[in-house]
Amino acid sequence: MTETLLHNAARVATGDVQRPLIEGPTDIRIADGVIASVGPSAGGSMDVVIDASHLLVMPGLWDAHHHPYFGDHTPEFDARGYLAETVRAGTTTVVSAGTIDFPGRPRDAAGERELAILAQRSWIHDRPLEINVLSNTVTAATGLEERDFAVLARAGIRRIVVQTPLPTAAETRRQVAWARSAGMRIMAHADGPTPLVRDAGSVGEALALIDPDIVLAVNGGDVALPEAVIDGLVGRSRSALEVSLTGNLKVARRVVAALVAKGEPERVILGTDSPSARGVVAPGIQRLIQHVIGAAPSVSSAIAIAFATGNTARAYVAPGGRVAVGEPADLVLCRAPLRSSFEDALDAIEHGDWLDVDSVFIGGTLQWARDRPVAAQSLPLLTMR
Q: Is pLDDT at 351 greater than 80 in this prediction?
């Protein structure tokens, strides 16, 4: 079992929205792929020691709204290329909101069921830089039956997304009930004012029928949800609300401010809704963090990072997203960029600079590292024992 010590981290963004920051030198020990301790080093021999004395340590970022295909390419984008760059920009987990963008995509119930299983199986074996791809999401389709949900659950599908409108309120209720009974999280891709249930009177009525655990793209793609619907989601629902990089960023800030004012910052999650016609931004979650910092006076850079880490893991009932004992060691070490006006990484991103990612761990294994200037080191970057 390899043990790694991240020694003397200057600051730690924990991913916990209630306790978002550890100030001062902190040691983080990694053993068997998980975080074994956070705090003063217990001493003893380590296989690998990394000097983090000038660095911010944070959980790997999560993209709460992604549309992964599988294999080496999509019609427009090289999947391996952009996902590897996504890891290098600090995102270690993407959550599928449905496999939807490829030629010949099946639209019938059996096709959607089999596609979800195929995508889930494919991403087990093909992950650039070992990025975590939570691809086990099925897209709701007219005609899915209770037996389909049993098959999907046995295959490991853990989420259903309502992406295109279902025909009736009765069918919507049935599918949601079957999915919940199968242990699935319910997602609604509420991009704009079109109801996700054809016989619903409004988008708000449709969302009430679905009663989703996660509402995706509340700030839209082309068009954000109507203001009254957003206010209803903030005030009356229990759903996590995802704001998207490709949506209306002014509305994104308003959603964040409203949830913080309500005392429910844990309901904010961040996603990119990519790949899409708007392209791919590998550091897209970083960019969205920059936009939501300061949406309310209490939204610091560490809290915004928690939106994109611990909040998302909690919304999807998945391990990770926090720097805490027992969590997967998906960790990012970063600093302020070269020639930034700010020495501290959190200060830099708060003022709109990018984080300069030094190294990325996924499952406790170093997946990527940038050479550090010798002058910045008080210990060797990497000491093998």
A: yes
Q: With contact defined as beta carbons under 8 Å apart, do 189 and 98 qualify?
A: yes
Per CATH, the number for 61-315 is 3.20.20.140
Confidence of residue 385 (pLDDT cuts 50, 70, 90): very low
Structure confidence by residue, pLDDT tens digits, 252-273:
999 999 999 999 999 999 999 9
- Residue 251 CA to chain centroid, in angstroms? 19
72-102 core/surface letters (b: 16 or more CB in 10 A; e: else) = eebeebebeebbbbbbbbbbbbbbbbbbbbe
CB under 8 Å to 321, separation ≥6 — which residues? 15, 59, 62, 93, 309, 310, 311, 312, 313, 314, 327
How buried is residue 143: exposed, middle or buried, by Cβ count under 10 Å (0-12/13-18/19+)? middle
The torsion angles phi and psi of 66, rounded to 5 degrees, stand at -135, 155
Provide Rg for the chain, Cα atoms: 21
Looking at 3.40.50.720, 3.30.450.20, 2.30.40.10, 3.40.605.10, the CATH number of the domain 3-59+322-384 comes to 2.30.40.10
Alpha carbon distance 285, 268 (integer Å): 13
* Contact between residue 299 and residue 292 where contact means Cβ atoms under 8 Å apart: yes
- For 79-116, write each residue's pLDDT tens digit: 557 889 999 999 999 999 998 877 788 889 999 999 99
Contact 293, 299 (CB under 8 A): yes
Query: pTM of the full predicted structure?
Result: 0.93
The yes-or-no verdict on residue 152 having pLDDT over 60 is yes
Peptide bond into 373 cis (omega under 30): no
pLDDT confidence of residue 378: 33
The reported pLDDT for the residue numbered 323 is 98
Q: What mean pLDDT value characterizes the chain?
A: 90
Per-position DSSP letters for 42-62, written without gaps between them: --S--SEEEE-TT-EEEEPEE
First vs last Cα of the chain: how many Å apart?
13
